[in-house]
Amino acid sequence: MYQGKKILGVIIARGGSKGVPGKNLREVLGRPLISWTIEVARNSKLLTRTILSSENSDIIFTAKRFGCEVPFVRPAELSEDHVSGVEPVIHAVESLPGYDYVVLLQATSPLRSADDIDCAIRLCVDRGVRSCISVNQPSKSPYWMYQVSSEGYLRPLIERNDIHRRQDLPEVFALNGAVYVVSCSALLAERRLMTSDCIPYVMPFERSVDIDSEFDFMVFETLAKGRASD
């Protein structure tokens, strides 16, 4: 709870994964991936309640083993590849009414901290906006990116005009998938996580790993082992 607002944390983790099969239960330093998100959610000072949304019995069993509440089994139709990531969050909010804000925590962002969660919540509530989403500055600016024309020529993705130095480029940010805070009323009305008044919570690059591939998992393992040795 923060400023009298009831805040529901929702960890989403499904059984199917194309890029990294079984990634939510894959172990790093003797712990399954999903446990990293459960731990920081439990350490949050502002989440009123944290639950898991999953259709997979093994993930549900593991989440419970690490102290996460599982009040329902997610319908199988909300766990298909084509289903938008917002749908399981809407299902959770509709299944558990009475909350002012919901915080989506994807299990594939294991290096966020409890403070990251709480800072994003404070920003959203204190600014009086309907959503706040975590971002980071990308390693490569889209101003240096190109697309290939129908004739096969390289063309700038974004016209740079007279900008030739990296230092002169506009500051840009990328969604990192770690923390999504949105008011429940806005979520149910608009069925999306990013509202028109969405504000950013900026996270450092080293806590912004989003696991979508084997390479991402290798990066996570390397950073996790580095933390453990500090």
If you had to describe this structure to a student in words, what would you say it looks like?
This protein has 230 residues and is of the alpha/beta class. The chain has six helices and ten strands. A six-stranded mixed beta sheet has the order 4-1-5-9-6-10, with helices on both faces. A two-stranded antiparallel ribbon has the order 2-3. A two-stranded antiparallel sheet has the order 7-8. The longest helix has 16 residues, at 214-229. It is globular and about 55 Å long. The two termini are 33 Å apart.
For the residues shown, what is the average pLDDT? Answer: 93
- Estimate the strand proportion: 15-25%
Radius of gyration: 19 Å
For the largest beta-sheet, the strand count, sense and barrel status come to: 6 strands, mixed
State the low-pLDDT regions, or none. none
Strand arrangement within the widest β-sheet reads 4-1-5-9-6-10
Task: Label the structural class.
Answer: alpha/beta
Shape: globular
Q: Would you count the extended β strands for me? A: 10
| Individual helix count | 6
Helix content: 25-40%
Write the element-wise H/E pattern from the N-terminal end onward. Answer: EEEHEHHEHEEEEHEH
> How far is it from the N-terminal to the C-terminal residue, by CA?
33 Å
Structure described in brief:
Helix content is 29%, strand content 20%. The protein is built from six helices and ten strands. It is globular and about 55 Å long.
Q: What secondary-structure arrangement, pairings included, does this model have?
A:
Layout: E1 7-12, E2 27-28, E3 31-32, H1 33-43, E4 49-53, H2 57-65, H3 86-95, E5 101-106, H4 114-127, E6 131-136, E7 146-148, E8 154-156, E9 174-183, H5 184-190, E10 199-202, H6 214-229
Parallel strand pairs: 1-4, 1-5, 6-10
Antiparallel strand pairs: 2-3, 5-9, 6-9, 7-8
